[in-house]
């Protein structure tokens, strides 16, 4: 591979490293007694960390935490940059919560601890969108069901937070109450996740060399 | 660990092994020119293979295949065995397709190639439910939109098919046309997936010893 400039700026991450990131963050959540009632995975990036962290948020005899998926994509990632300004939105919603199915077995999100999971916090645009829309969704449910006193507590878990200027913010309260959980804060490099690797053996070796195993 | 009877019946699978399973099955799909238009992940087990296989179903310059999640759980896995008979259903639906959000950017499932993904085909109950309900869903959409001539093609991808008597079946046509894709057919052993591992280093070593890396 050689030590070209391009290599240096790439951070290779193994599956086992990601597994341990999830395990570590989950241990922190459990130590504080803040086990979530529901996990919301942002597809596609959030699906893998969401499934892994669920394993570590389970106590003996407890049921699995239900996972709901929401599909959010940035226009820029879909090669639709030119449409952003005319449409006036940066995020495309491809799937939303299914309250109809959820409530039959789970009540609703009202009054619950909700853990939102994604793989990376890059510009913070997607996370901002997710939190804002979910809060709004719960609020309108509360009004509809006349349950406005109950407090819903949102937390965020990402594998990596990129240390860079963000285009959007998250609620003050979430930050000050340590409900924003990044397993690692990293420089603004190219994150090479294992699920994108065309040669997983070579990828894992590179991750080990970089200490990301 | 020692070679106790319990150990022998456990099959340890590493993340890298799962990655390669997805890569191999995807190569087969691409070689046949049968790239799916949409992936449907059955949560929680299907989320990891769904996200991984998507990487290998992408050609240069093509957009990511959209993923929709559906939440299906067996009553028996939720400790609700005793309720099954009275309710008369074996599967709990916790999330369904979000056609409202999907169609804005994607049309619908009508006339599409749809790849349903789960981790394991054990009794086949969940997969049977998923295919039956999805076919029905598409059918009613077709009638609603007056597009009954278009053929929707469902395929299934699982990491492991357990070689055991099944409680439910899949469409004949799907089997005969090789649209049921199991990366591996295994005996009826205890599959230890990496995302359940409390010690991922030890787990990976055990998987390597068993040749599942």
From TrEMBL, chains A, B:
GO BP term, pick one: hypoxanthine metabolic process
Residue stretches spanning the membrane: none
UniProt keyword list: Glycosyltransferase, Transferase
Record has Transferase as a keyword: yes
Pfam families per the UniProt record, alphabetical: Pribosyltran
GO CC aspect terms: cytoplasm
InterPro entries: PRTase-like, PRTase_dom
GO molecular function, one term: hypoxanthine phosphoribosyltransferase activity
Residue ranges of every copy of the Phosphoribosyltransferase domain listed in the record: 15-136
Top-rank lineage group of the source organism: Eukaryota
Name of this chain's protein: LADA_0A07998g1_1
Organism: Lachancea dasiensis
